Amino acid sequence: AAPARDRLRIAIQKNGRLAEPARALLSACGLSWRESRDKLFCYGESLPVDLLLVRDDDIPGLIADGVCDLGIVGRNELDEQGAARVQAGLAPAFHALRGLGFGQCRLMLAVPDEWEWQGPAQLSGTRIATSYPAILKDWLAARAIDAQVVELSGSVEIAPRLGTADLICDLVSSGATLRANQLKPVETLLDSEAVLAGAVRSPDDARGALMAMLLRRLDGVVQVQDRKLLMFRAEQANVPALEKLLADAEPLVRLPADEGALRLQTMCPGPLTWQRMEELERAGAQQLMVLSVERSLA
Ligand code: ATP
Ligand code: MG
Question: Fewer CB under 10 Å: which end of the chain, C or N?
């Protein structure tokens, strides 16, 4: 068992796509740190919660070994290492505790543009290049497809042109990299985002209580991220159309206003674009007011 510790340790990416958003999220939870000179360790000042800055590949292993209690990592990386453990006959050691709403991408199969895609059955006998061999093997096995998995640590997208594979299985966000390599996405294996990961067995000492508090704060922060309180005036007759435009928001709160009109307010999830504001105005919203919602620190 890992030695008893009274400080919580969280592993996050040192450099890369998840590094900044991970730190910003933890700061929003009220954490602050003093950075060490080598910039690998951040000592928690406001709470006994320290950060370890590492490569994202190392995060699941640090949790499995009990070196860190929590980590912020892509679901793709966590699932890959989890599947690899199971394939090697090891017990599950870590799991995702929360989706964090950033770092979105998909693990997808992509084939050369000229292929006519007819479905997964077409993959029998092909060679598939990927950095996610364990997830891919599980996916193929579940469909009884006999294909060869070619493991590459990087530059997977050039494998078909080099002739080392027929197609690839790789992360996609905008699709620009695929297009630049004359590939097209055809199947999604995983919808990924950054997650907060933790050990399957959570610590039963002081760290457990710290972890519970951090999770509560995190839920509050993630929930209100991007949320806006929207207030406006509208004539009765325009309310149904406005409700339709705000179908993804909470039900409208209606208050009587002057001359039989209504004051309406609602909490809008997701970003409020200018375009959306203008649509609301065209549909009859007057005196539109938008307020950012911060979580109250009661
Ligand atoms: P490290 O040096 O830490 O190993 P890395 O090169 O493996 O870094 P990044 O490229 O920074 O990792 O990506 C980190 C994570 O960001 C990915 O594992 C994935 O979850 C997420 N991500 C979001 N969009 C993309 C994308 N278009 N390509 C790759 N990863 C993406
Ligand atoms: Mg990496």
Answer: C
